[in-house]
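## retry 2 of 3
previous attempt timed out at serialization; input unchanged, resubmitting
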Amino acid sequence: MIQNQTLPSWESIFHQVGEPVPRRRRARCPIHGGDSPTSLALNDEKGVYFCHVCHASGDKVDFVRHVRGTDFKGALAFLGIQAPCKPPRPDPEIARQREALERVREWCRQIGRCLRDQYLMRQRIARYAAEKLAANPESPLGWELLRIASDGESKIEYLLDEIDLCRTDAERIRVWRRYHDDF
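## retry succeeded, writing output
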């Protein structure tokens, strides 16, 4: 077991990983890439952390493992405790999580693009239908086009808003879990 006294301070670790130094034992969580500057709580006495958004927790070595995407030995080498002969190997579990997160981000980009295209096409159809109905209020083509344009429009608009309003990876994962089977 590694004693907390032998490990660098949180400020030093954040400086080493290239993150802003925490203020008042709070920081932005680099594990899930959140926007809140206070989501990550740090305890220097115990040498532990906890994120109130992604619920990641552990000690300083775990923190370095997750942020740097390396295994235990690599994290120790990064902290200057033990220098392995080889460069640190990426932890396969963390690499798998990063790949899954990238797939979720790509899904959100693709579905968002597709839904925006559908929404714009429905708007064009609705405008064309309105022109037809303005010329002839009894036009069956105008009424059929209007029905097509409005069928399912609210669901598309709602889902598009949900995807476009995602600011963090945690929100993207929530939307992906809710809707990925529908597409």
